């Protein structure tokens, strides 16, 4: 039985609502299958869908109660106005991380050496390079599979980024940077059970968890970054809500002359720590 675009979307919304899931996921999937932006989708509400497209769309919607993120079905997520490929090997880019990028861009003059530690999909590194083309950007990740995703994103989007595999700063020994940016793992192990299923079961553990208190990677960075900064360097970190003061203290101990700012996100949660290094 043929369905119009409107009928298909209405069915998806009802199905998702009955399973306690977010209804916008239905629209994202429908746009994906119709290869249409939102304006085109709305304009086609009364058009009939082909049987093949309807059945494929219906099958994808019916997988969502399993917990799989819609971005993994679609294979992409938007970030800072660009579409990035994603998979189960990388963290899905979040809107809060766009605010970290914005905080860094505010400070750039356009010729800086930048390193992104724990790059994942490459969203931060690629965005910074494309928004400030004169910069020299390096992106590091421990996961070879994550780097493969990031490199493919850089190629698709036309970004010039140097990729290195290794643990935190290890691949860039004896190198100094003007900007060091990182969205590291920061979820405490004790919070594992309370995470949403689609995060806990489908996103990489390596990008999520960081010891009993979630601060394990920040402790390492606070120590290791001493060898990679110069006077005037900027360290920009995304943090978990409620971690601002603890992360600030860790870096203040290692960089006693630094000016450290905690920024809050659009949801009024502490989300970014900016360290202006003074040696």
TrEMBL record:
Query: Which catalysed reactions does the entry list for this protein?
Result: L-glutaminyl-[peptide chain release factor] + S-adenosyl-L-methionine = N(5)-methyl-L-glutaminyl-[peptide chain release factor] + S-adenosyl-L-homocysteine + H(+)
Pfam families given in the database record: MTS, PrmC_N
| Domain Release factor glutamine methyltransferase N-terminal as annotated: residue spans | 7-75
Q: Where does S-adenosyl-L-methionine bind?
A: 118-122, 141, 183
Enzyme Commission no: 2.1.1.297
Which top EC class is given? transferase
Start and end of every Methyltransferase small domain?
103-191
| Entries under InterPro entries matching the protein | DNA_methylase_N6_adenine_CS, HemK-like, N5-glutamine_MTase, PrmC_N, RF_methyltr_PrmC, SAM-dependent_MTases_sf, Small_mtfrase_dom
Keyword terms: Methyltransferase, S-adenosyl-L-methionine, Transferase
Report residues binding substrate: 183-186
Q: Which GO terms describe its molecular function?
A: nucleic acid binding; peptide chain release factor N(5)-glutamine methyltransferase activity
Q: Does the keyword Ribonucleoprotein apply?
A: no
Gene Ontology BP annotations: methylation
Function, as annotated, reads: Methylates the class 1 translation termination release factors RF1/PrfA and RF2/PrfB on the glutamine residue of the universally conserved GGQ motif.
The family annotation for this protein states: Belongs to the protein N5-glutamine methyltransferase family. PrmC subfamily.
Protein name, as recorded: Release factor glutamine methyltransferase
**Which organism is the protein's source?**
Shouchella lehensis
